[in-house]
Amino acid sequence: MSYLFLFLAVVVGYVVALFLKKRELRNMEVFLAFSGAFLLSITVFELLPHVFETPSKSIGVYIMLGILLQIFLEFFSKGAEHGHVHLHSETKHFPWILFVSLSIHAFMEGFPISEDNNLLLAIIIHKIPVAIILSFFFITAGYKRITTLLFLFFFAIMTPLGSFISLNYSIVHQYETEISALVIGIFLHVSTTILFESSKNHKFNLPKMTAVLVAVFLAYFL
Ligand SMILES: [Zn+2]
Ligand SMILES: [Zn+2]
To answer: For this UniProt entry, which segments traverse the membrane (predicted)?
Structure first.
């Protein structure tokens, strides 16, 4: 069931993008700020305490590796996982580099999803604005519909696939803490980047700030 919701988050994103007008893309930033704050809160409130049940420096190393991995992936994705798309392709071929980097990110984020945390909800909320912006880019850049749909389909199955593997393969289960720590690093980087970019030039923006505060409160009381 949770796999279906993760998949549907991308479907919803595509459908919204079909009807979205360029000037309405601004409203996405408030939603994006909310999603980033919510993901960060779930990471800090739920995932972090879990991996530090037995404190050790090596867990910290995995978190740091996750942060570095995400920085590395964004050299290729140009920040698509936090709602940025800059692709300058005249040829309109399938954007493999974007696809691979985005898929690694999406695949990894499926791993720590479990019934003991609210990560499923956080990832769905994180995925919807990303899928909207990504789809919007594909549509307005004039990619063929089949290219767009293939891209989004495979992107959409990555997180459920990661989650499925982590739940069904005992070898992965053995390294649960290490993998979670790595993904925490990914989440820390992505979510703080969203928050950073949502306060452009450090200017105060009431709707975005409100969205951030509401997200933190909600995540705390879940
Ligand atoms: Zn960015
Ligand atoms: Zn993500």
So the answer is: 6-21, 30-52, 58-76, 96-113, 119-139, 146-167, 179-197
